[in-house]
């Protein structure tokens, strides 16, 4: 049976380390690191995410600046807020919660964020810095996946990695991160031919396609390390109930592979921990 990679425990440990770093920063700088989170509209899922981010930020000893704007906020007003946060010396990191309500230009808002405060790693400047090896911020989910992989495997150099999914937020930055670690990287996606054979060649598999339990145990190389980014809600065995599953069929995969992240409790908890990590890093760079 595979080892289970405990993302929840790793994230708790990382949050503890960030809190120590925050205490050191605050003693030196005479202020706390600050994270500004902007939420536009009433999307229920976004409200929960933002509340969780606020709690985690405060628990780490940082300043949390929450900006809640009505759904009918204009592009101009939103851009003015981002400009104000860019200029505010108390703000080290800026996160604009996505999706934005219809009518707002998401891309224009994200690109307006100062790359040195882009703790989500969503600006094209951050993507370009990652691609060219310059210091910048890496999107939280792929960064969390990399931390789990390095903790499990140590040096990743020379390993064969297959990423399933090509999104700007996970698949593409994940590929860049693994390339930076000297892996041989393949990005597979919905049009990839003979996907099971492609996946079977991999020492490292990162599944980020958003299809419940798509990757089966017999697609995987024995001993491989599997990171499951999927969070899919599906009907449970109990009538009327639902459950969360990943993009990997955990039951069959865990009979073949060396190690695998569970869903929930794998990659999920790493995302907020990495947001705090990036915010502390932003504060240290700005003061340094
Ligand atoms: N919406 C869902 N996840 C995220 C995230 O990580 N960052 C932002 N900005 N919006 C999101």
Automatic annotation (TrEMBL):
It comes from Croceicoccus pelagius. Catalyzes the oxidation of 5,10-methylenetetrahydrofolate to 5,10-methenyltetrahydrofolate and then the hydrolysis of 5,10-methenyltetrahydrofolate to 10-formyltetrahydrofolate. One of its GO terms (biological process) is purine nucleotide biosynthetic process. Its EC number is 1.5.1.5, 3.5.4.9. Residues 139-286 form the Tetrahydrofolate dehydrogenase/cyclohydrolase NAD(P)-binding domain. GO terms for cellular component: cytosol. The gene is folD. Coiled coil: none annotated. This is Bifunctional protein FolD. GO terms for molecular function: methenyltetrahydrofolate cyclohydrolase activity; methylenetetrahydrofolate dehydrogenase (NADP+) activity. Residues 5-120 form the Tetrahydrofolate dehydrogenase/cyclohydrolase catalytic domain. NADP(+) binds at residues 165-167, 231. Keywords: Amino-acid biosynthesis, Histidine biosynthesis, Hydrolase, Methionine biosynthesis, Multifunctional enzyme, NADP, One-carbon metabolism, Oxidoreductase, Purine biosynthesis. It comes from the Bacteria. Pathway: One-carbon metabolism; tetrahydrofolate interconversion. Belongs to the tetrahydrofolate dehydrogenase/cyclohydrolase family. Pfam families: THF_DHG_CYH, THF_DHG_CYH_C. It catalyses: (6R)-5,10-methenyltetrahydrofolate + H2O = (6R)-10-formyltetrahydrofolate + H(+); (6R)-5,10-methylene-5,6,7,8-tetrahydrofolate + NADP(+) = (6R)-5,10-methenyltetrahydrofolate + NADPH. Homodimer.
């Amino acid at each position: 049976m595979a080892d289970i990679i405990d993302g929840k425990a790793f994230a708790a440990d990382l949050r503890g380390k960030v809190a120590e770093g925050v205490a050191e920063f605050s003693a030196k700088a005479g202020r706390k690191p600050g994270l500004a989170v902007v939420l536009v509209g009433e999307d229920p899922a976004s409200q929960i995410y933002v509340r969780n981010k606020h709690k985690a930020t405060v628990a780490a000893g940082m300043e949390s600046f929450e900006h809640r704007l009505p759904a009918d906020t204009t592009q101009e007003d939103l851009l003015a807020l981002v400009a104000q946060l860019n200029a505010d010396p108390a703000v080290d990191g800026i996160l604009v919660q996505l999706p934005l309500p219809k009518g707002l230009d998401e891309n224009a808002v994200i690109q307006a964020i100062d790359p040195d405060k882009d703790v989500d790693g969503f600006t094209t400047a951050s993507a370009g810095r990652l691609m060219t090896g310059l210091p910048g911020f890496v999107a939280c989910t792929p960064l969390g996946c990399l931390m789990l992989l390095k903790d499990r495997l140590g040096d990743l150099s020379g390993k064969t990695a297959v990423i399933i999914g090509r999104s700007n937020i996970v698949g593409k930055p994940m590929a860049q991160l693994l390339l930076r670690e000297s892996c041989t990287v393949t990005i597979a996606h919905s049009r990839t031919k003979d996907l099971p054979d492609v996946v079977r060649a991999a020492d490292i598999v990162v599944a980020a396609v958003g299809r419940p339990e798509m990757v089966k145990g017999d697609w995987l190389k024995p001993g491989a390390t599997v990171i499951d980014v999927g969070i899919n809600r599906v009907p449970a065995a109990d009538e009327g109930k639902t459950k969360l599953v990943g993009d990997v069929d955990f039951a069959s995969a865990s009979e073949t592979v060396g190690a695998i992240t569970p869903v929930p409790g794998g990659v999920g908890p790493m995302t907020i921990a990495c947001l705090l990590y990036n915010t502390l890093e932003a504060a240290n760079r700005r003061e340094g």
